[in-house]
Design goal:
The complex is a heterodimer of chains A (274) and B (484). By secondary structure, chain A is an alpha/beta fold. In chain A, 29% of the residues lie in helices and 22% in strands. Chain A is built from 7 helices and 11 strands. In chain A, β8 and β9 form a beta hairpin. Chain A starts with a strand and ends with a helix. By secondary structure, chain B is α+β, with helices and mostly antiparallel strands. Chain B folds into 4 domains: 99 residues, 2-Layer Sandwich (Uridine Diphospho-n-acetylenolpyruvylglucosamine Reductase, domain 2), CATH 3.30.43.10; 118 residues, Uridine Diphospho-n-acetylenolpyruvylglucosamine Reductase, domain 3; 97 residues, Alpha-Beta Plaits (2-Layer Sandwich), CATH 3.30.70; 127 residues, 2-Layer Sandwich (GMP Synthetase, Chain A, domain 3), CATH 3.30.300.330. Chains A and B meet through α5 of A and α13, α14 and β17 of B. The complex binds flavin-adenine dinucleotide.
């Protein structure tokens, strides 16, 4: 089985203060100095794929690829993925001309083209969303372009007993659904049941990962003309920081005991009953 | 004859009041250890004897009465405040110990802006005190990463140090006066004066005692003017730790006092994401503060010195400022670490040592080399590196950081397999090179095999303190002083 996990890295948004959000005339925020992290759903997808490939009975027959569309800053992450035993690390570099923000049509075209033209994988794992202002469409569009079935909100995946199929667990309108499905398949990964964190490579593995080459491809390598990427079905007209205001109530009371009582009776008791 | 567990609880209830004596099993479990056994606690393993009770302390007279009772009946006690200890200082290794929890003594007693003195009970959380001071334009200058967790009693008891130490000093430079209770119930107060020459500085019997000599009930620390608007940040990537130590030395010896002066090796820097801006490089970080002119002049001095080293390349100061703003550990970070440990069976520890300028690089190089070559489970290490974060006129510290995957061993054996031997190698290499085996976490219960070697002939003085102040050996047995 050949598995590809499509991932992206994001600026570590919680690290930013209000003052850091300066939007310029091109609707760009300078995040070059902000630490990048794996998009959390993608990180879960990356770990899930490793569990499926390496911890299962058919480890030798599985090949894992990590794929990202990014500039060279992502190479550090791709080499890290080599260190945690990904077989291939691939980056699609579109240069600075193409704005892929809020453009799932272009992103899905690049990903699907790679899978069809070069990778030849039968299983695609992709995070359900990718950070602030995300559209949650990329996974579905990749499936659409490949013409493959797609399961959303996946929380676990293991090989089915006969090993011909996969046993996929997902959430659907509050219920948990487990289904046995064949390949090819696109899985859109939600809040996974097992570890949401990527495993940690040893020093030796990190050293080995550093020595490996990331395969860098351009849209042309995927037989995509730059014009095909520039079209977007939406136009960016403004960029605002999502505000997450919270209300705070200071508990009144003579001492901690009284305050705890108020907390329990007014805020917790009802919820705990449920 | 030793009192039974039930009798201890009964007597304590009479002295402190039944509400102050906690015997709930889960509370006892949580109070039987500290972060030294952080992995075990995640899996609900409590291997040490559970204390007979946790006593919630309320005032100095009550502390005195409780200690007197424990002393007369030779019952071991473990003082505790914020519970953020990392070296086993909070472990209840003796059967039927009593944990003395001072976290309820959390009143800020006085903020004296005229004399620049802040007085707080032992259970005042440092962040609470600091925020209150900042609102009035002052600061303690003390900012350990555990600021949101630690409390004044523990901070003094461990000789803690904060991130701005190069300017403000460590806790021993900040403490002016103290109140402490000794095992026989004696309440002592050391008055608040700027300096005196009236015999040895007795504050140092109390500061750093790790609960092994007395119970600290109240602390008075200095206040400084808070002027963060003048803070400036500087960061430089470089190839070698040796060069970094040389630069730190030159800055200190020339007379500059940045509040932060740090040197990360490439491995440790990568943990903070510095590799994204300077892959494979060491990193020097500075923050200057104080009145505008001083902050600027200190910054200029640093820039001038660093410019003489071709190896250094300046990095965007926003990276440094951003990193700095997220360094502290609040309870949510502790919880995130617990989740991560549980799910990945991967965890990290630190061992902090110090050395003069002439030996610090030797300590760094020899330690890393020895661990790489001799540690039998090196294949399970996922991180090995460190940084220097507190510099002085005469030398600096080295904070070794090591993470590992727990592989093929029971949870109960994890410490013996990994942390204990790694810690031992760091301590041994440091002592061999002439450094000190503990820079700021305290000896706790696991570096005691080297206490005598650390102090050499001066162990005579250290031992005398225990003999005189805690002759019955009831104060935090096994801490600082090796078990007999
Ligand atoms: C995430 C994290 C970051 C940290 N960063 C730093 C740092 O930057 N700098 C630093 O110096 N340390 C650091 N530490 C270590 C720890 O926070 C300090 O040692 C701190 O001073 C402990 O304070 P506490 O109130 O939590 O004490 P506790 O953990 O409750 O106790 C610590 C020790 O002091 C004794 N003790 C506690 N209260 C009293 C008292 N009232 N009288 C007598 N003895 C007492 C205890 O018996 C124990 O031996 C860190 C720890 C963590 C977990």
């Amino acid at each position: 089985m050949k598995i590809v996990v499509c991932f992206k890295t994001l600026a570590d948004y919680p690290m930013l203060t209000e003052r850091d959000w300066r939007v310029d005339e091109q609707h760009q925020v300078d995040l070059a100095w902000v630490r990048q992290v794996y998009n959390c759903y993608d990180e879960s997808a990356l770990e899930l794929a490793l569990q499926l490939a390496h911890d299962g009975p058919d480890a030798a027959a599985c090949e894992t690829t990590a794929l990202s569309i990014d500039d060279s800053r992502a190479d550090l992450f791709l080499r890290h993925l080599y260190a945690v035993q990904y077989d291939r690390a691939v980056r699609i570099d579109c240069g600075e001309e193409v704005d892929l923000r809020f453009n799932p049509l272009a992103v899905s075209l690049l990903l699907a083209s790679y899978i069809r033209e070069i990778g030849g994988q039968q299983l695609v794992l992709i995070g359900s969303e990718g950070g602030m202002g995300d559209n949650r469409q990329t996974g579905f569009l990749v499936a659409e372009r490949l013409g493959w079935p797609c399961i959303r909100e996946v929380i676990d995946v293991v090989p089915e007993e006969s090993r011909e199929c996969l046993c996929v667990t997902s959430r659907r309108e509050g219920a948990v659904l487990t289904q046995t499905v064949g390949l090819p398949l696109v899985l859109v990964i939600g809040n996974v049941l097992r570890s949401p964190y990527l495993r940690v490579p040893t020093l030796k593995e990190k050293l080995a990962g550093k020595k490996k080459q990331v395969l860098v491809l351009s849209p042309t390598d995927l037989a995509i003309a730059p014009d095909n990427l520039s079209g977007n079905d939406r136009t960016l007209v403004g960029l605002f920081r999502q505000r997450q205001d919270r209300q705070c109530v200071m508990l009144a009371g003579e001492n901690a005991r009284e305050k705890a009582k108020t907390l329990y009776h007014q805020y917790l008791a009802e919820r705990l009953k449920g | 004859m030793a009192l039974s567990r039930e009798a201890i609880v009964e007597q304590l209830q009479k002295i402190a009041g039944p509400e102050q004596v906690i015997t709930d099993e889960q509370v006892l479990k949580e109070n039987s250890h500290d972060r030294y056994r952080k992995l075990q606690s995640v899996f609900g393993i409590y291997a040490l004897p559970l204390p007979a009770a946790v006593v919630k302390l309320t005032d100095v007279e009550q502390v005195s009465a409780v200690l007197k009772f424990l002393n007369e009946n030779k019952i071991n006690c473990v003082p505790r405040t914020g519970g953020s200890a990392t070296e086993g200082g909070l472990e209840t290794i003796v059967e039927n110990s009593v944990v003395l929890d001072g976290s309820g003594m959390n009143r800020i007693i006085k903020i004296d802006a005229d004399n620049m003195l802040a007085t707080a009970q032992c259970g005042v959380n440092l962040e609470v005190l600091e925020n209150q001071l900042r609102a009035q334009g002052f600061t303690t200058g003390h900012s350990p990463q555990s600021k949101p967790l630690a409390q004044m009693g523990g901070l003094v008891a461990t000789r803690s140090i904060g991130q701005f130490s190069t300017l403000y000093g460590a806790i021993e430079d900040m403490v002016v006066g103290l109140e402490a209770v000794f095992p026989n119930g004696q309440i002592t107060r050391i008055k608040n004066v700027p300096r005196r020459a009236c015999g040895p500085d007795i504050r140092h019997v109390i500061i750093g005692n790790e609960g092994a000599l007395c119970y600290i009930t109240e602390v008075t620390v200095k206040m400084f003017t808070y002027q963060p608007e003048n803070n400036l940040f500087f960061g430089y990537a470089l190839d070698n730790m040796k060069t970094g130590f040389a630069i730190l030395r030159e800055i200190m010896v020339t007379g500059f006092r940045p509040s932060i002066a740090r040197l990360y090796d490439a491995e440790d820097g990568a943990q903070h994401g510095f590799d994204q801006f300077a892959e494979g490089k060491c990193l020097l970080i500075f923050m200057t503060e104080g009145p505008k002119g001083i902050s600027r002049a200190t910054g200029e001095g640093i820039e001038e010195i660093v410019a003489r080293y071709d190896e250094c390349r300046k990095v965007n100061t926003q990276i440094i400022e951003n990193w700095f703003n997220h360094l502290n550990w609040d309870p949510s970070k502790v919880q995130a670490e617990r989740d991560f440990m549980r799910k990945n069976l991967n965890l990290g520890f630190t061992t902090e040592v110090s050395g003069n300028w002439s030996c610090i690089n030797t300590i760094y190089e020899n330690t890393i080399k020895r661990i790489r070559e001799e540690f039998p489970h090196a294949e399970d290490l996922t991180m090995l590196g460190g940084h220097s974060s507190h510099s002085y006129q005469t030398g600096t510290n080295m904070y070794f950081v090591y993470d590992y995957n727990v592989v093929n061993c029971a949870m109960e054996e994890e410490l013996e397999k990994y942390h204990v031997p790694l810690n031992a190698m760091i301590v041994e290499e440091t002592l061999k090179a002439g450094g000190s085996m503990v820079h700021h976490h305290g000896i706790g219960k696991y570096r005691t095999p080297w206490t005598k070697e650390e102090h050499g002939s001066a162990y005579y003085i250290l031992k005398a303190l225990k003999d005189v102040f805690d002759p019955n050996g009831i104060m935090n047995t096994g801490t600082i002083y090796p078990l007999k």
